[in-house]
Each structure stands twice: as C-alpha cells, then as structure tokens.
Amino acid sequence: MGYRALLKNYLRHVIRVTGSHHIDAAESGGPLSKRDLAELRLLAAEVERETYRRRRAGPSEQALDAPPEHGG
C-alpha cells in the first residue's frame, strides 16, 4: 500500500471517529510545513469526494467502490 492510500485510510478513520479530519487545527509554524498541510488537505478533499460518490452510488456500486477492509 502506498503512502497516499495509507493516509487516506487514516483520514477516513479519523473522520469516522471524530467527525472531522482536524487538518485545519494544525498550528501555523508547527511541525508540518505549509506544503505538508496543503497535501493533507488535498487528500482530505479526495476522501470527501470518494465518500460522497460512494453514498450516491447504488448498493451494488458501493460494494465495488468500497475500500478494502483491514483487520487490526
């Protein structure tokens, strides 16, 4: 699994558990650069689009489009 897929799965988890990705809460000048935050926002937007598309899809399409479940 690539780092983008890993981060997107993690963002899905954080959003599911807390209701937000919390990227905008990161401190300016903190450990993440502006570029890091921009990349995370891009991934969060992709996750939100995929979630929206999945919700609009019919049940048979949802099964095909759903991310694989991982144990753990």
Give an overview of the whole structure.
This protein has 72 residues and is mainly α. It has helices spanning 3-18, 34-56, 59-65.
Number of helices: 3
Beta-strand content: under 5%
Low-confidence stretches: none
Q: Cα-atom Rg, whole angstroms?
A: 14 Å
Features:
72 residues, 0% strand, elongated
Brief characterization of the structure:
The chain has 72 residues and is an all-alpha fold.
Walk me through the topology.
Elements: H1 3-18, H2 34-56, H3 59-65
